[in-house]
Amino acid sequence: MAPAAALTMPATLDQILAAINSVNRKLDVIVSQQDELNADVQAVQQAVDDLGAAATAIEAEIAALKAANPALDLTALDTAVGSLKTAVSGVSAIAAPPAA
Questions:
Q1: Nearest 10 degrees: CA dihedral of 79, 80, 86, 92?
Q2: Residue 72 has what DSSP assignment?
Q3: If we measure between CA atoms, which residue out of 72, 38, 79 comes closest to residue 58?
Q4: Per-residue pLDDT reduced to its tens digit, 38-84
């Protein structure tokens, strides 16, 4: 005869249903958190896109200044915008939206 500790009673349907409901509640929390994370990633991506557009606009403004004032040395501004665009590209790679 098997030891008493080895014997198990079959789960009742109520116990099974309670376990399923518990798993469903946990899954709902996980899905909700994932939706929030996806929304945050999309917001970050939009901010990165906006920064990229702003950097491009600044670059165009510098080019216009160079054309209007060839004597101006705008090397520092060119370097700053180049660094900004590099940073935006780096953040954009990190903040890529999740695959649907």
A1: -160
A2: S
A3: 79
A4: 888 888 888 888 999 999 999 999 999 999 999 999 999 999 999 99
